[in-house]
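User: Need the bound-state model for coenzyme A:
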Amino acid sequence: MKLIKLTKGMERYYRSLAQVRELDIIPEKMNIFLSNPANIAYMVVDGDDVVGFTWGYVQQRIDNEDMLYIHSVDVVETHRNQGVGTMMIQAFLDVAKENNFRNTFLITDEDNVEANKLYSKFTNEIEREKVLYIFK
Ligand SMILES: CC(C)(COP(=O)(O)OP(=O)(O)OC[C@H]1O[C@@H](n2cnc3c(N)ncnc32)[C@H](O)[C@@H]1OP(=O)(O)O)[C@@H](O)C(=O)NCCC(=O)NCCS
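Assistant: Bound-state model below.
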């Protein structure tokens, strides 16, 4: 299996990416997203099949403490528990290290056992007391 950083113009993969996460990917929007260097996406392929997809963004700050946010991480059912998620998280952490970011963070559900196992491989720092407000 191979980790690939997504770049603008990789349209041939967009349909398969949508299957990993059931996303309605609009190619034009995807190309705009990938044109912005603050937006980061990786996929893992097994031969011609996309089996993992993750994306997130650099959160620029007004001080010198930029952070990296991972928005979603998905692996197709047939390829779970084989290290695909680990490869994708590691890719984000490498970006953070290379750029001296303050930290990398994501939000997951407390009862998502597999996700919590995956993320706990990389850190013990968990904010359990925070409250998430959503404005619409
Ligand atoms: C969460 C998810 C991304 C994990 O991806 P993955 O490729 O299966 O993860 P990995 O194979 O790298 O496994 C990482 C660790 O999780 C644990 N793990 C993963 N799946 C497991 C399973 N089914 N049973 C037991 N442990 C499991 C293992 O301990 C593994 O550690 P190890 O490398 O020391 O063995 C995947 O299960 C998934 O896509 N779930 C549905 C979408 C989702 O919930 N995404 C996260 C939302 S925030």
